[in-house]
Design brief:
Blueprint (H helix, E strand, L loop, with lengths): L6 H23 L7 H6 L6 H12 L2 H14 L6 H15 L1 H4 L9 H7 L2 H34 L3 H50 L2 H10 L18 H17 L2 H7 L5 H9 L1 H26 L15 H9 L5 H33 L9 H25 L7 H25 L5 H26 L13 H12 L4 H7 L19 H11 L1 H6 L7 H20 L15 H6 L5 H6 L53
Helix pairs in contact: 1-9, 1-16, 3-9, 3-12, 3-13, 3-16, 4-8, 4-14, 4-16, 4-18, 5-11, 5-13, 5-14, 7-8, 7-18, 8-9, 8-15, 8-16, 8-17, 8-18, 8-19, 9-14, 9-16, 9-17, 10-14, 16-17, 18-19, 18-24, 19-24
């Protein structure tokens, strides 16, 4: 690609990055001026609902979505869009199940919960280590996405983008703490939405309206939603996208450090619930616009008759959207705005990860060794040093992903799903099953993490990315070149048809032989050479999280019963989730619900007794757990109050 940024593009791009940095400076000079760890890590627990909701959203919907979802829709059709319903369902479940459990505990690190529930520092450290490893991996993928886009439209080297992203993110997190991270997220979300809407509007109008976009995609067999195949090895099905997506994202929105740290920074439980639930709206807007951008851009290139990826105008499918922006939105400043939106998406994710890693490392690994009498100035220096260390590590990890193949969307969901299954399983094992002990939790989690990562990495590197649908190439220069070669070597069209098949509309149904270095051809060759490994790694990446959770549950409970299960009556009910009461109160009899509490004694909520469902036994954890907050509890360990208290 020879398209170059103009001076106006660079001006817009740099200005947006400078504004992000200035927000960090502002929060370093206002309010409490980040002089305490409570303000630096938790915003003094005085944040507002809407900015926290937006921050949670863009922590998980980043440049990966803006590039990956359109690339997915462009190359593989509309099936992926069903994922929006899986994510929205996950947001609802997270609000019902996890927010009432975690918010009253007022934790800085969510892994404090593991020590309280399992009465084990080892379980807490297991969660902390796996979480930090997975966030570093996600950091690398998130940084790769905008870097490859900027390289596509301006020729700017990827390595320089990696460093810029890492340095800016580290700077404003270092200066302004969680407050800066949240408010920069709000600013960056506006830029992201503006960029993707510009693509949708221009591509749709240029093709002739959304009806025409839909017609073209249908003509190319890209409109496909209702694949109900129960086979878990099929890449995308209704069950994998909706059910698998729901299971994967429930833990992400409700039981991840990035989410808990943010909704715990709010002033009340109701505000925390609203902040998480608002993500239903945000998820719908972000995924819908990104997916529509993919099919709109495909319609544009189908009308033009040449796929940029097949014509080698771009290096990988992640550059399709940037290529379209540089070609069709070439007005001064617009490409700069779009690329800045991608960088904002990466910065929002990276700063969220950076803030989360610093919080859990300080709380779980360093704070236990710091004397309570140490002044806050010393503690702040330690946390800011951690910001610098993780900032450098994030940049280094990014370089490992510079040769990433396939869509960044599948890469991120593969690796994060593998890690997320183990982490979600670790939390849910303790929250749902009262018999689980610390030995089972640790063994189950480590086993799930190793197996899931093995399968995830193996499928992505050995099997590769496949199932790319046919794209238009009949007006491409590479197609004309191959036709001329065929003519000059006396290859008849009958012979050519054995290599390249056409349908009645003149569209290629298999063009991979015309593009020897295309992703579809590469994956095809690898599949043929590794049939045994392909079979082993056949599980759809959308089931990785579910698979990891099941391993954690099975192994964790087995080890727990072998080593001596925890007695349900000894479990603090404030640390458990009565899942059947919360999800099925309207259809299950009271006696059945009581049985499904597995012997855990959930106490009445202020003596409430009604016949509407949550019956006389609701959840003390949603309103009765003691809170350690404010200056009077500065050096106090988190100890939830209950008639069955756990020594931790």
């Amino acid at each position: 690609m020879e398209h170059q940024f103009s001076v106006a593009d660079w001006a817009v791009f740099v200005s947006i990055l400078v504004i992000s940095a200035c927000i960090g400076i502002y929060h370093a000079l206002t309010g409490g001026k980040q002089k305490t760890t409570k303000e630096f890590l938790m915003g003094n627990r005085e944040m507002s609902c809407l900015p926290v909701a937006v921050s949670i959203l863009v922590s998980f919907q980043s440049a990966i979505l803006i590039l990956g979802a359109p690339a997915e829709m462009y190359t593989k059709g509309t099936q992926y869009y069903l994922y929006v319903f899986g994510q929205m369902s996950a947001v609802v479940l997270a609000t019902i199940l996890f927010v009432p459990l975690f918010y009253p505990l007022k934790m800085t690190s969510m892994y404090q919960y593991l020590e309280m529930r399992y009465n084990s520092k080892a379980a807490r450290l297991t969660g902390t280590i796996i979480s930090n490893l997975s966030m570093l991996i996600y950091t690398g993928i998130a940084s790769f996405a905008p870097s490859t886009a900027l390289q596509a439209v301006s020729g700017f080297p990827q390595w320089a983008s990696f460093i810029i992203i890492g340095c800016i993110c580290t700077f404003y997190t270092f200066m302004g703490g969680l407050k800066a991270v949240i408010w920069v997220d709000v600013f960056q979300a506006l830029i992201m939405v503006a960029g993707i809407l510009a693509i949708v509007i221009r591509a749709t109008l240029d093709v002739g309206g959304f009806d025409r976009v839909w017609e073209i995609n249908s003509k190319w067999n890209r409109i496909d939603f209702w694949n109900f195949d129960p086979d878990p090895t099929v890449r995308h099905t209704f069950w994998a996208l909706v059910i698998g997506g729901m299971i994967n994202w429930t833990g992400t929105y409700g039981a991840s450090q990035s989410s808990i740290q943010r909704f715990s920074a709010l002033s009340s439980l109701n505000e925390a619930r609203k902040a998480v639930m608002l993500n239903c709206v945000g998820v719908f807007i972000m995924i819908t616009t990104s997916c529509v951008a993919g099919i709109s851009v495909f319609a544009y290139y189908a009308e033009k008759g040449c796929d940029p990826l097949a014509n080698k105008d771009i290096k990988n499918s992640n550059q399709i959207i940037p290529y379209f922006v540089s070609e069709m939105l070439g007005f001064p400043g617009i490409p700069g705005l779009f690329i800045a939106g991608l960088f904002c998406g990466a910065l929002s994710t990276l700063s969220s990860n950076l803030s989360s890693m610093v919080a859990v490392t300080y709380e779980d690994m360093i704070k236990p060794f710091i004397k309570p009498s140490k002044p806050e100035a010393v503690k702040i220096k330690i946390t800011k040093l951690l910001v610098l260390i993780y900032g450098v590590l994030g940049i280094l990890v990014t370089f490992l992903f510079r040769n990433l193949k396939g869509t960044v969307l599948q890469a991120s969901l593969s690796f994060m799903g593998a890690a997320g299954g183990a982490l979600n399983g670790l939390i849910m094992l303790g929250a749902f099953f009262p018999w689980a002990n610390w030995q089972g939790a640790i063994v189950g989690t480590i086993t799930a993490y190793i197996v899931s990562m093995w399968i995830g990495i193996g499928k992505y590197t050995v099997v590769g990315v496949k199932d790319t649908l046919p794209s238009p190439v009949y007006n491409c220069s590479i197609y004309m070149y191959n036709v001329s070669i065929a003519s000059s070597t006396n290859v008849t069209m009958t012979t050519m048809s054995s290599i390249v098949a056409y349908n009645t509309s003149g569209m290629l149904t298999n063009y991979s032989m015309l593009v020897p270095n295309s992703e579809s051809t590469t994956s095809s060759l690898i599949q043929d050479s590794q049939p045994g490994l392909e079979s082993f790694y056949s599980l759809s990446y959308l089931w990785y999280s579910t698979f990891g959770m099941l391993i954690t549950f099975v192994v964790g409970l087995t080890v727990s019963f072998i080593t001596g299960p925890t007695k349900p009556e000894d479990v603090n009910p404030d640390l458990m989730i009565p899942i059947f009461d919360r999800l099925f109160w309207f259809c299950l009899p009271k006696k059945v619900l009581h049985f499904l509490r597995f012997g855990v004694d959930y106490e009445p909520d202020n003596g409430a007794d009604n016949d509407s469902g949550v019956t006389e036994t609701t959840f003390k954890s949603s309103s009765e757990v003691a809170r350690v907050d404010g200056e009077d509890a500065k050096h106090q360990e988190l100890q939830p109050l209950s008639h069955k208290h756990i020594e931790s």
